[in-house]
């Protein structure tokens, strides 16, 4: 789904904004929607509200290698919506896998989420995010998190609540997508949130 803007330009280079689709997946309640909310504002979802379908957030990212536009697809983690996910994953350029360090089952389920995304969108860069590291009652310890090593994913321990390492997963993905390992995000992100739930029939 990589695009170069404006349409009149046929070659992607540092003077053209490149657009990527990034899907955010994982069990419900792991902090995916709160992560997207934090990126676009100071808001934080203190009460868990299940995402129905998918919500999209468009973010402009200024980097040392030019400007990029990321369209974040915040996908539902509810099992009953499983049949819809293939449509959401189609044409993804990258993915963020989320789990909650206070819930062992959310980490245990990561292989299933990973299998789903690579089946639909193989060979895309993926980053694994361990959320809620600010919580004292941690169940998944750092030394036991090894899944990312096996599949050469990026990995970050983050806290959406405390705003810890929120930009780093996106920076990692942009490094992989642009094939510029020295790329760095400059300043804060410019984001706009679209609260609409995408109808699978429109994809």
TrEMBL record:
Keyword annotations of the record: GTP-binding, Nucleotide-binding, Nucleus, Protein transport, Transport
Keyword Transmembrane: no
GO cellular component, one term: cytoplasm
Subcellular location: Nucleus
One GO MF term: GTP binding
Record-linked InterPro entries: P-loop_NTPase, Ran_GTPase, Small_GTP-bd, Small_GTPase
Taxonomy, superkingdom: Eukaryota
An annotated GO BP: protein import into nucleus
Keyword GTP-binding tagged: yes
Family per record: Belongs to the small GTPase superfamily. Ran family.
Protein name: GTP-binding nuclear protein
Organism name: Meganyctiphanes norvegica
């Amino acid at each position: 789904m990589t695009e170069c803007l404006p349409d009149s330009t046929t070659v992607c280079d540092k003077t053209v904004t490149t657009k990527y689709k990034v899907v955010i997946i994982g069990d419900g309640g792991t902090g995916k929607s709160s992560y997207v909310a934090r990126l676009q504002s100071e808001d934080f979802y203190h009460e868990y509200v299940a995402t129905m379908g998918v919500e999209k957030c468009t973010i402009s990212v200024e980097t040392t290698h030019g400007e990029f536009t990321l369209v974040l697809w915040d996908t539902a983690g509810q099992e009953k919506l499983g049949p819809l996910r293939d449509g959401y994953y189609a044409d993804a350029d990258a993915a963020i896998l989320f789990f909650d360090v206070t819930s062992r089952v959310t980490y245990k389920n990561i292989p299933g989420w990973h299998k789903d995304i690579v089946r639909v969108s193989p060979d895309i860069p993926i980053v694994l995010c361990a959320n809620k590291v600010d919580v004292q009652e941690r169940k998944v310890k750092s030394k036991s998190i090894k899944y990312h090593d096996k599949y050469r994913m990026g990995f970050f321990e983050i806290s959406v609540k405390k705003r810890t390492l929120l930009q780093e997963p996106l920076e990692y993905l942009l490094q992989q997508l642009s094939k510029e390992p020295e790329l760095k995000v400059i300043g804060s992100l410019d984001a706009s949130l679209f609260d609409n739930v995408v109808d699978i029939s429109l994809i």
